[in-house]
Amino acid sequence: MLEVDIGLIGLAVMGQNLALNMNDHGFTVAVFNRSVTRVDEFLAGSAKDTQIIGAHSIESLVSGLRLPRRVMMMVKAGDAVDSLIGQLLPHLSPGDIVIDGGNELFTNTSRRMAELASQGILYVGTGISGGEEGARQGPSIMPGGNPDAWPQVQEIFQAIAARVDDQPCCDWIGAGGSGRYVKMVHNGIEYGDMQLIGEAYDFMRRGMGLSQGQMAAVFGRWNTGVLDSYLIEITAKILDFVDDEGPTLERILDRAGQKGTGKWAGINALELGIPLTLIGESVFARCLSAMKAERLKAAAFLPGPNGVLIGQAEEFTAYLHDALYAAKIMSYAQGFMLMREAAKAYGWQLNYGSISLLWRGGCIIRSAFLGDIKQAFDNNPALENLLLDEFFRDAINQAQSGWRKVVGKAAELGIPTPGFSAALAYYDGYRSASLPANLLQAQRDYFGAHTYERIDRPRGQMFHTDWAGNRNPKLDDQP
Ligand code: NBP
Predict the structure, then answer these.
(1) Is the beta carbon of 38 within 6 A of some atom in ligand 1?
(2) CATH for 6-176, among 3.30.70.260, 1.20.1070.10, 1.10.260.40, 3.40.50.720?
(3) Confidence (pLDDT) at 473
(4) Is the CB of residue 11 below 6 angstroms from any atom belonging to ligand 1?
């Protein structure tokens, strides 16, 4: 009888394609699905003529696995995963490995890792990006969890992952929920990239009156330079796509969906106190788009410019390119800043250069630009913010004039650019030696006696002023 390398539970889109991918790389995979008819359909369908083995119960799935047993779950995140772990445990022994490849909240992964470690089971929560095609052809894989599991899963994961420059887009991220966390930030950055591309499209469409064909050509051109990326490439193809009734994009309802990973990133950034404004604005922009009925009423009720640029198409196409590039740099700078803070808060050792390499292939945000991020962290592994790297400083400096023109002109024409604008506000805020937070602190002290520090006294020394009584500042005697 064949010794089975790995058991896989969950035969929806991702599970099926990962099983086929593992089979292609010479691993023997046994598969199980809660609705067992799916197992038979898979074996009779796309898994026909493969080495994949079907199981009709968890017990039979686990019984054929080589030791230590490796079981991977590709099911809906949340309760389904806890329920499956409960069903698996009676069939596992210490040293066995349980892997969750779903889009799970990182805190659930940390919790499960600790719970299973107490029973000697090694738990891995891994990010897997790239959707159906990635799962089949080679995804980007971001595993984290119990470090003792890595030597047991490394070979399979690195074999099935995407490769760039002959390097697998898979490496160990770190302990606890760190793999899931990095995938969450990846998804948030994906939201940001998509929002920025959408704003460039909207500006060209509404502000410049370009046709879909013209915009497809612009995105196609951009894809050969610093913006070279999967999302720019597919945007050009979408704009070029025509069906029997005409350009398909024009008939798609402008209400965005979301599955929650961008929201998780935003919530965690608020908890950690990191200005993740690009991702936040991108999530809110999706929320605003979803209010279609209200927007239709408001469109007929609220006045404002609906202007169109006359005769500046060439200049503004170049400015838009620069706005997109600069804003994208801000978004990644914020994403890496969040990961740095999370590593501190949760006690993880994250390798930021390596993370950027994992995203170069197999995932939705893959782009040439990630090589520059890797370079920045190679130059200085302790880099606090990408904006403090010379390459990115110079890139922003070259792009900022066009970026500012786009934000200014969009405001004038009445075209919303929350991503471009938030990115610029972040940049100007970050490079400001002085911000109006002194006034804010004074207000807080005025109405709530919250105290303040002074620029001419040691940090940590707190002062309070009796503002209404107009008395001089007093050293605060509160602890
Ligand atoms: P889905 O997220 O649509 O989940 C469907 C699978 O979950 C089916 O196998 C279903 O079994 C199983 N399942 C459910 Br629902 N409840 C269960 C339970 N209580 N116990 C056992 N199994 C249960 O599948 P997917 O789109 O392939 O995604 C799998 C995971 O990968 C998800 O966490 C997803 O977020 C993540 N992911 C998806 C993508 C993507 O592009 N789709 C990309 C990256 C990551 P059934 O057949 O019996 O209903």
Answers:
(1) yes
(2) 3.40.50.720
(3) 73
(4) yes
Q: In this predicted structure, what is the pLDDT of residue 108?
A: 97
Annotated ligand binding at 33? The verdict is yes
The minimum-distance atom of ligand 1 relative to the CA of 9 is 9
Binned at pLDDT 50, 70 and 90, residue 477 comes out as low
Query: Secondary structure of the chain: what % helix, strand, coil (to 5)?
Result: 55, 10, 35
131 lines ligand 1 (CB under 6 A): yes
Homologous superfamily, domain 437-475: 6-Phosphogluconate Dehydrogenase, domain 3 (1.20.5.320)
Which residues participate in catalysis according to the annotation?
183, 190
Other residues' Cβ atoms within 10 Å of the Cβ of residue 276: 28
Is position 218 annotated in a ligand binding site? no
- Residue 2's identity, in one-letter code, is L
The CATH number, out of the four listed (2.40.30.10, 1.10.1040.10, 1.10.150.120, 2.102.10.10), of the domain defined by the range 183-430: 1.10.1040.10
Contacts for 157 with CB less than 8 Å, ≥ 6 apart: 126, 141, 143, 168, 170
